[in-house]
Amino acid sequence: MQPHIEVPYQQCLSIKGQALTGLSENQNLILQNEELLKDAYRWMTLTRVYDQKAVALQRTGQMGTYPASLGQEAIGVAVGMAMAEQDTLVPYYRDHATFLLRGWPIRDLLLYWGGDERGSAGGPVQDFPISVPIATQSSHAVGVAAAMKIKGEANAVVTTIGDGGTSKGDFLEAINVAGAWQLPVVFVISNNQYAISVPRTIQCGAKTLAQKAVGAGIPFLQVDGNDFVACYDAMQEALERARSGKGAYLIEAVTYRLGDHTTADDATRYRSPEEVKEAWSKEPIKRLQTYLAEQGWWDESQEKAWQKSCDQRVEEGIAAYKTMPPEPAEAMFDYLYEEFPEVMSAQLDLLYRKVERMRAPDSVVDELELDGLERDDSANDESLDEE
Amino acid sequence: MDTNKSSAQVHEITMVEAVTLALAHEMRVDESVVLLGEDIGPNGGVFRATLGLREEFGFKRVMDTPLAETLIAGMAIGMAGHGLRPVAEIQFMGFIYACMEHLVSHASRIRNRTRGRVTCPIVLRAPFGGGIHAPEHHSESTEALFAHVPGLRVVIPSSPVRAYGLLLAAIRCNDPVLFLEPKRIYRIERQMVQDHGEALPLDTCFTLRQGDDITLVSWGASIMETLMAAEQLSEQGIECEVLDLATIKPMDFNTILKSVKHTGRCCIVHEACRSFGVGAEIAAGLAEHALLELKAPVKRVTGFDTIMPYFKNEQYYLPSEQDIVAECLELMTF
């Protein structure tokens, strides 16, 4: 039998979009904040439109493998909205909503997933780039948090992770030191129920992922990850604690990945249509939209105008992505070390020669190749000696 | 900051003391330099490389971490990304493999992937190599694993003076540096080290002895046997040029090439396993660029492609002065 651990669970909006009773003062304040909630709704819908277009770009061969955040927009937007500009985000790869809120241009996000390193050049100067290896970002986040503490900054770090990532040592080592050193870091688990195809239930034997914080000695909370109000309230409290020197916090946002793991995945192999249908009934955007509409804060004409604006914004980003001139090949050398090590100059020369060969018209390439064959046949050819 | 060379204190110290001296110097002149690792606080590190630094610089700059090497590497990356210059100690190189993912996947490439927005000025220090009768997993020399990683610098000092100067350079470098300290020579000799704050150049090998007959290339603890072999060969009329590679990656191959073109013979000495290593890289470069200048095949005196024996037999594994002399005599009679 598992030891009994009380894991608080927080939800503010019912799955049908009605405010629940018995909420805290802050939760009620959020529920009454028309502009805040409309803003949240706008970011969630923008993220969804961006996601759909990104998947379409991949499907039409205009972008690389892409992990959509379909269904996880509420927690992503809550993280982005609750963070202050000077806080630091140390993200995982499915944080598109938060990236948009942190100011990453759509063009740059597309560049990143389109295989161009310049995609990670933008964004807030202190935020970390996307981490593709799983859970390593947790360790980086506690390093940033330790640096903040050493420097005496009153800022916080937010680091995100999927449910699968919490099985890894990096995550456990990071929450351990965050507890021991009272670091200003908020760990956000986006528990979307699947690590590619492996369901949460066989990923980990604990009843909740939040309770992993017990062993680290840090406070924890489970929230309905599809409920923006609950997520935002939790993030506000966690960030406030962190910024005021009270230490780390762990939030498990219980959500559901409505799409595939990435565009290279086919989730129908391991999930039933019934399960996905049931998950759609709890999705975050419809839920908040219903609430807004019932308050009289949102109507069909606003919806139409906003959708049009989202389309336009994403299309502009796509156009900027498509017209971005390619980076020169030597950029791989330019950014490897701060200063180019002279001892690598022979390799740079090899690259220049390769680029020249690639730029040569087909006929010239053919000639060069023939030339090479002829040279091979004539061992005494002086041109062999040329460096 | 003590920039006045003439007034700089001169210490007759061992290599491990030179490490401490360099750390203390840089911590005094640069507030962003912080240390983290296991047992580095009151204990001063298992080899005492950080002795006294907690007392001088306090808890915020000399941090005892939980016993978790992966975390140490990852935290250092986070600290570096937030404006600090962390110098992390991994107690023994045998425990460094847990850091591998952070070194390969993040530290070495974060500048490149962010086009310079986020950089990683970390130093990861680790004692390494055999010859001190240490337990299992404490005696290997696996520098080649790290030298293979683009974006990392791998630096190995071979004397107190070079430990001081190269460590200063490593800390000031805005890229990640793996600073491997050959523990067999931590306390074997004392040198006069001036605490003047002057770094030695990275990416450069040092010519320790000049000669016309054979180029001997080595690094770390093996420099000791290499220099002794050169002395012995000199008594037999064979003059060796001895190069200390110092920065393993990026490698100063041009200096090696120039020397080998002059001597026509090359013997590479390293403690690490024989195959797929740094010695093989040098030999391949010489085959590519100096074939016609070679008077004899390139030789390697190395450890074997075996598990490093436990300490009762480690002397059979480690390259000795006699091994080097024997190979060099063969080179001269080829």
From TrEMBL, chain A:
Lineage: Bacteria, Pseudomonadati, Pseudomonadota, Gammaproteobacteria, Oceanospirillales
Species assigned in the record: Litoribrevibacter albus
Name recorded for this polypeptide: Pyruvate dehydrogenase E1 component subunit alpha
One Pfam family named in its UniProt record: E1_dh
Annotated PANTHER family: 2-OXOISOVALERATE DEHYDROGENASE SUBUNIT ALPHA, MITOCHONDRIAL
Coiled coil: none
Protein origin, superkingdom: Bacteria
A GO biological process held by the record: branched-chain amino acid catabolic process
Enzyme Commission numbers on file: 1.2.4.1
